[in-house]
Amino acid sequence: MKTAATVATTSAGDTPRGFAFALTAYLLWGILPLYLKALAHVPVVEVLAHRVVWSVPIALAVLMAMGRTRDLRAAFASPRTLAMGGVTAALVSVNWGVYVWSIQTGQALEAALGYYINPLFSIFLGAVLLGEKLSARQWAAVALAVAAVAVLTWETGRLPLVALALTLSWGFYAFFKRALPVGPNQGFTLEVMLLTPFALAYLAWLSGKDALFIAQAAPGDVLLLIGCGVITAVPLMIYANGAKLLRLSTIAIMQYLTPTMVFLIAVFVFGEPFGQARAVAFPMIWLALILYSSEIVRLRR
Asked: Is 198 in contact with 27 (CB distance < 8 Å)?
């Protein structure tokens, strides 16, 4: 998933085409837990490896259609770009892995919490690392998010590790992604290409142990694993093109659609228990997001 902090829009206003692209991407991300749940019997790391490997041909095909392969070649020729791409690739792989694991182990509610907190963490990073000044509403939103995490920790006796891991990995991914001197499609392609040798090495290691799931899987599972490339690359690239046609404030508010869908799927489809602590923590997060959004709307006006 993307946050407002990761996007630099080139449009002065919103366009219907941009809205349609962004809405499509957020809806696809919103139903992603249903797809990943269908792969709950496949080891997490193998699912992650397939997400990487099968994303590469799709990403390259898009770049070829756009005529932007020269940018990718330039990125591979730049040690600085490769180093930064390695950092973002590592962070996004951690994020993907934790997300897959959370869905497989019945922790989709924590995943939703993590993506609700993410924009608040991004503005906090902006204040701490970039010296950006936050308004009183923004500080109040951050404080409410911290309080919600404290409530969950107090009630359950442990930190909401899935939510925090998703927030931290994607928040720092978004932060470092800003310094990656290539476009979003080229950056995504660079990341998955850098991850591919590790993914292929892991799959080869599993094959040598006769533990490669896809080699023994039913045809339906094989298609689902190959389709991991589609569900990984396509929404991200649709989003990247839509973001260029929308204002930053529009993207910032639309991004809540995905964790809301994940939340509803977790409760009403997966049947995950809501519990007293979550009944307190989630409204606190929602209130924080209302404060955050109202500040965006105020600045936009």
From this structure: no
Q: Which two tokens stand for residue 275?
A: 């519990």
Residue type, 254: M
What does the block give as tokens for 121? Answer: 């963490």
Each domain of the chain, given as residue ranges in start order, spans: 11-300
| Cα 104 to Cα 73: distance, rounded to the nearest angstrom | 37
CB contact set of 81 (below 8 Å; sequence gap of 6+): 74, 75, 180, 181, 182, 190
Phi/psi of residue 250, nearest 5 degrees = -65, -45
Please list the helix, strand and coil fractions of the chain in percent, rounded to the nearest 5, in that order.
80, 0, 20
Q: How many CB atoms lie within 10 A of CB 42?
A: 20
CA dist list (Å): 200 to 44, 75, 213: 15, 22, 14
Q: Tell me the per-residue pLDDT of 183-237, one tens digit each, with 9 for 90 and over.
A: 888 999 999 999 999 999 999 999 999 999 999 999 999 999 999 999 999 998 8
- How far is the CA of 117 from the CAs of 41, 86, 122, 148, in angstroms? 29, 25, 9, 10
Question: Residue 206's closest CA among 97, 18, 49, 33?
Answer: 49
Where helices occur in 4-135 by DSSP H, the ranges are 16-37, 44-66, 69-76, 79-104, 108-129
- What is the crossing angle of helices 184-208 and 228-243, to 10°? 170
Classified as helix, coil or strand, 139 is helix
Contacts of 103 by beta carbon, 8 Å cutoff, 6+ apart: 33, 36, 37, 40, 111
pTM for the structure as a whole: 0.88
For residues 99 and 171, give the distance between their C-alpha atoms in angstroms, rounded to a whole number: 14
Cα of 33 vs its chain's centroid, Å: 12
Half-sphere exposure of 2 (CA within 13 A, CB side): 31
The tokens for 18 are: 């941009």
